Amino acid sequence: MSLNINDRTEHISYLTRGGISYASAKEISLALGGNYYYNNDAAKIELKFSTYNLKITARNQFFVLINRIDNSQQVVQIPISTLLAKDDVLIPMIYSSKLLSIAYGKEITYDDNRKHIQVTEKSPPVIAGLPPKEDKPVTPPPVKPKDKTPVVIDSKFDVYDMLIDEKTNGTMIRLKSQKNLKGYRSSIKNNTLFLFLTGTTVDPNLASIKPTGLVKKITRKNVAGNIQLEFDLKDGFASHETFQDIESNDILISIQNKMFETPVIDFTSKKEEWKFDVVVIDAGHGGKDPGAIGVSGVREKDVNLGIALKLGKLIEQKLPDVKVVYTRNDDTFVELYKRGKIANEAKGKLFISIHCNALKKKPSDTRGFEVYLLRPGRTKEAIQIAEFENSVIHFEDNPDRYQALTDENFILVSMAHSSYMRYSEKFSDILNQTWTKHTKIPSRGIKQAGFYVLVGASMPSVLVEAGFLTNRQDEAYLKSSVGQQEIANAVLNSIITYKDYYDKTFEEAVN
Description:
Elements: E1 2-5, E2 8-11, E3 14-17, E4 20-24, H1 25-31, E5 35-39, E6 44-48, E7 52-57, E8 62-67, E9 73-77, E10 83-85, E11 88-92, H2 93-104, E12 108-111, E13 116-119, E14 159-167, E15 170-177, E16 184-189, E17 192-197, E18 215-223, E19 226-233, E20 237-244, E21 251-257, E22 278-283, H3 300-318, E23 323-326, H4 336-345, E24 350-357, E25 369-374, H5 380-390, H6 407-416, H7 418-438, E26 443-449, H8 452-455, E27 461-468, H9 472-479, H10 481-510
Parallel strand pairs: 1-13, 22-23, 22-24, 24-27, 25-26
Antiparallel strand pairs: 1-2, 3-4, 4-11, 5-6, 6-7, 7-8, 8-9, 10-11, 12-13, 14-15, 15-21, 16-17, 17-19, 18-19, 20-21, 25-27
Helix pairs in contact: 3-10, 7-10, 9-10
């Protein structure tokens, strides 16, 4: 990537991921004649210019503009997160040039086609709330596998460092790892969180790291030739979740604070509000967003709508006491956040988002149905599917409203949905078992990933990938009226079984 300033051209290190180009914040700062401070422990960099400093955190969407005259600060959110490189932060240039302009004091523009940054003598944009937005591409960027930026660690241990951060809704522990850890599990007993690591070496100094937040003491033990880390917890924790960050191999442990926990559903008060009386059906994509395109040109948005409308009619016929609410019932484009808003305003008791899958290769032998829960993606495939479905935001007027579902940001979301997860899991299990009895598409099982459309629905919710449009057999079935009707029947029968379970739980709670 090139940067031109005062007839001088500098070359900036960059990489491209998911169709977005990310540039070295350090090198940009130096090319502009500024200075910087990098905090390795916090993975933060502060670019220092004459009037403003710009503070940027790796794997985070928030930039902080600091006025050096009065030390006032303004936090600005960009649509996607930055990346972490060795001793550096990589910033998405298409969304960062306006902020760099303000910090530097002169207009900075970015040409993504040429991978060129131009500095002019023009005044920077006036900051009032969010800076003026960059022009967005008219189509979503292609989904590409995530590349890993190699990081050289001077340590003989697999797990070589640990960061403990206190968040507004709990505490997050990050165990920094040099390799992909397969053998790990966690549990909480008697106010102690146990993390058991099989076949993994752990730096003994981790036990001496200063605890904070809900963690009051850390102990490292050898148990049957393996390492066990014990975290003594303060009173006030509610639950925890442990998963591995796909990008960095780090182990993340979130510990939820009770005072910020979403209340468990209380059937005993306002009983009428908890009756199973509304199902929200979300036909994915629509309007200017066609979704995936099949082998013969079938558009995902049309298949999704066909299944949704057939399912709605079946529910109205077989469950007359249950109201059907559509996020769209024709070929219109509905922004992702509005879909959740529609569901919440309707006081839905179950949210089903209907989609079809696709691969880059056409045709492909891969086929099958999948049902997804809102949790951090465990596999690269699940993450790529979520990235494609989430790329809808590039069709929207204000993609800035979305917070990237990565690392720490995802923890805030998963905690907020914790009270509904039991019911989401139950419905997905019923649907997975029912699917193969009613359709001609095999099941690939229950999976998890971060979908924006599920974030907004404050109720039990799942996302269905009904089959692969890039598989000739699946596509023929999905586009046919018979296939769509059989799929609708499978979902209907799952709803009926789930409603019986829900109603039984309701009766047990109120009696």
